[in-house]
Every structure is written in structure tokens, then in C-alpha cells.
Amino acid sequence: MFSVDPAVESALRDRWSRTLRDLRWASVVLPASVSLTCGAMLVVGAVTGAGISWPGVVPLVVSTIAAVVLRRWFRQQAPLDPARWLPATAFAVAAQLLVGAVPTFVVAWTATNGAGRGVAGVLMALCCLLGAGMCWRARRASRTLLTPLVPELGSADVRLTLPLRESRVRAGVVVERDRIEWAAKSVGFDEVRHVTPVELPVEPSPRWWLASPDGTTVEARPGPGMLIEGPGEAWLLPVQDSELATELVNRRRALWIQGNR
User: Fold this and answer.
1) Positive or negative, the Cα torsion across 24, 27, 31, 36?
2) Which of 181, 182, 194, 261 is the most buried (most CB within 10 A)?
3) How sure is the predictor about 2, in pLDDT bands with cuts at 50, 70 and 90?
């Protein structure tokens, strides 16, 4: 994740350490606990009931596969994309619960009665709590790494989203390894010559910065902005913090230039 610059690694070491701890919980400890709890439900059904046939083990296998896939997905991310951590984890939770825990609970419930069903119910509730914990940990990992945004993140291998001041445009400015994207526009760093912070005045009248296919334009209101200049074109983006956004983009561009020498 880190740049070769020791100063950058030192500045991000603490938040990266806390992020890794949450990611381990979200992608290793808690998913494994869900699978173990599913296994415990099968044991309850086998011990207190009429036993479990081999098809009853299939949901446990599915739950385990979902946990392994989630872990591999986290390990293979390049660049890191914190915005996708929670959705990916929620998808894995849904797979573990709906295709793993719930069928396992039904198998255990059917195979036993009395106290065994009560224990199976408690274990099913525990699976749901563990799934919620996975989502919470994934969300906290993302917030820990990206909040607040600091210039050093521009020198790390992390996909960044810079907020815009324009509420009518939901997506922000996405800073990738080799380009900048916003709305339907993508500009590679090979097209960028200068990135500078600007302050948009009240006068003259606001300049439009985004046009939709039907000709509707979105104007940049007075306030901070980031000017991206290319060989024959320039793009004005009304970001919330022009100085920070500019430094993040310039650091990422410098990292790209360094990697393409």
C-alpha cells in the first residue's frame, strides 16, 4: 500500500495498523466464527436429534467458501478500494447467512426437538450478530483509513474519492492509480500538465463544469475548486477543499510518473 517514501509510510503507519486490525476481523475472524457456529448447529442436530445426513453439511460448506472468497478478495485488491469494503462484506454476509446459516438452522431444527431447538435458535441469532459485526468492522476499516483525508494518502496505493461541493452530482472525484474520474469523464495522468487550487469568485457569473448528454449544464458556484490543465483543454472541479484535493492529485500523479520512468 505504501509509497517508498519513508515519511509517507511513517505518517500512515498508525491508521493502516488500525485498518488492518478491523479488516482481519471482518474477513477472517468473524466469517470463520459464522462457519463454526453453523457447524455447531449441525452438531446440536446430530447429538440431540436423529442425526444429520451428508446433504445437511452442504450449507456449512457454502458458508466456508463464502468466507474464503471474501478473504481472497481483500488480499488481492490492487489498488485498495475502501469504498467497496462494506458492500463486498455485506454480500459475503448475505451468502453466509441465507445460503449457509439459515439452511443449517432448518436442518438442525428438523433433526431435533425441545432443548436442541432452543440451542439451535440461539446459535442462529449468534450468526446474525456475527454477520452484523463483519459489516461494522468493514465500515470502520474504511473510515479509519480515509477519515480524515490527508495528503499522504495520495502517495499510497488507495483509490480515493474527493467530495464535490455540488449536491446535484452524487459521485465525487475518483483518483485512480493512473487517472482522475468524475461523472462520465476520465482523464489520464499522461494528459495532465498542471493541477492547481483555485477560488471561484462571485463575479463573473459561474462557469459550467459538467454537461449532460441532453445539453443540461451544472455550474460551478463560488468557492474552492481544482483546475486540471491538459495540452489543449482544462477542467474545473468544484471540490470542497481545493488545497487538499490538489495535493492529493499531485502526489498521485508524481507516483504515477515515478512508476513510468
Assistant:
1) negative
2) 182
3) very low
